[in-house]
Amino acid sequence: MLTEEAAQRGKALRDRIPRSGHARWQPAPERPDPVEILQRQAETREPTLVPIRHGRMLVSPFTFFRGAAGIMAADLAATPTSGLQAQLCGDAHLENFGGFAAPDRHLVFDINDFDETLPGPWEWDLKRLTASCAIAGREMGLDATSRETAILRAVSEYRRAMRTFADMRTVDVWYARLELDQQFERWSQLVDKRRRHELDKAFAKARHKDSLRAYAKLAHEVDGRPRIVSEPPLIVPVESLVTGWDHAELHDRLYRLFLRYRETLTEDRRHLLDGYEPVDMAHKVVGVGSVGLQAWIVLLLGNGPQDPLFLQIKEAEPSVLEPHTNASRFDCHGQRVVEGQRLMQAGSDLFLGWVRIAHSPDGRPRHYYLRQLWDAKGSVDIVGLTAEELVVYSGICGWTLARGHARSGDRMATAAYLGKGDRLDRALVEFSETYADQNERDYAAFAAAVRQGKLAAEFGI
């Protein structure tokens, strides 16, 4: 049961910030120009890749929203908050959830993107999630009632889960997780035979998406040595990017980088990493919002060619939340990402670590985090869902987000603030639909900037 002190604390916050008050959204008079925000972000990204990012964002209002975390962060900073904080994902839209293999090899469902993670008001994550329900629902062609139902499910599951976690032992909150085997059984009972067959195939594909599969897809032999394939501009081996390096020098630089990364792992995982040797590296374009930042893949070999391991090295910049809350307490933004992920996820990648390079080839210090490239990772095609499936999926995401927040925030006071009724649920329906309107206006301004030549965009890449 909620402690009386926590209940009083949470309920008292309702007087200061009523739950119905979260419905409000209107652009501030001094609201930053969304196009200018994207232009500023482009200044620290690889210029040749920025047009690819813009092209992917231009596909639809939903893909624009996925790349517009910085725009929404500025907007959320002007919205009311309860004053209760938690570790935030920072970009908790529907497509940043998915399945992967936990260290015990069970497939779990969790948040899977932490590039923007930072402590902050829990409402910011929840509002980004519910706004994505409204925006994705519009792209799917769903009517207002169907979108409302999905948003209500996301918030109600978040609210009920938070109350459940508030009554649990602290250690049990950390053990809690959503296993895909169980969730798959529940979901398959709600769909017809054809859809169940599609889910079976997707589940099997995710289970077998590992480094062996990545090796078959992304590597080949050159002069008897394994090499990452070249598919420019999406995959470019490092030897094509940096002239004057022979294989021995490349290997030496990789080895020294991995020595620094190795120090961020626990002793047992260092021992695991020591069983592999890095043999090749390539630049790989990933995602929507991350395009233009440095993202590398590294091929390592253990016990011969049948024992490959692919790691991903992603650049981490300051969180888009930092201008609107406290700066990260970590000197390395790669560490910020890793520590936030470990706080929010039920079971993080064995190889999750970070490295900071003080002097990169362009003279800038760069921060990175590392993880496995593929580890039974699976994602949901949101716009391919039916209305009923979107409702179920939104609820799963709401539960998952609450679990992440309950691990790091004051779950008892937050649960008391949320209460048993649906006032917040209804408020976030209004907020999300209003913000979806704003997102469409921003998307239109973005598209106009591309047409006018203010922003460059490449399509179909």
Fold and architecture overview:
With 461 residues, this protein is α+β, with helices and mostly antiparallel strands. The chain has 2 domains: 4-92 and 102-206 and 384-451, no CATH class; 211-372, no CATH class. The chain is 48% helix and 15% strand. The protein is built from 18 helices and 13 strands. Strands 8-9-10-11-13-12 form a 6-stranded antiparallel beta sheet, sandwiched between helices. Strand 10 (295-302) and strand 11 form a beta hairpin. Helix 6 (122-139) packs across helix 18 (423-451), helix 7 packs parallel to helix 16 (387-408) and helix 7 (144-166) crosses helix 18 (423-451). The longest helix has 29 residues, at 423-451. The mean pLDDT is 90.
Secondary structure layout plus pairing:
Elements: H1 4-16, H2 34-42, H3 50-57, H4 61-66, H5 69-76, E1 85-88, E2 97-101, E3 107-111, E4 118-121, H6 122-139, H7 144-166, H8 170-175, E5 178-179, H9 180-188, H10 193-207, H11 211-218, E6 219-222, E7 225-228, E8 235-237, H12 238-241, H13 247-262, H14 267-273, E9 277-284, E10 295-302, E11 304-315, H15 333-344, E12 353-357, E13 366-372, H16 387-408, H17 411-418, H18 423-451
Antiparallel strand pairs: 1-4, 2-3, 3-5, 6-7, 8-9, 9-10, 10-11, 11-13, 12-13
Strands ordered across the widest β-sheet: 8-9-10-11-13-12
Q: Major sheet: size, sense and barrel closure? A: 6 strands, antiparallel
* Unreliable runs: none
- Rg value: 22 Å
- Structurally, the number of domains stands at 2
**Coarse shape:** globular
Mean pLDDT: 90
Number of strands: 13
Beta-strand content: 15-25%
Distance between the termini: 53 Å
The share of residues in helices is: 40-55%
Count of DSSP helices? 18
Overall SS class:
alpha+beta
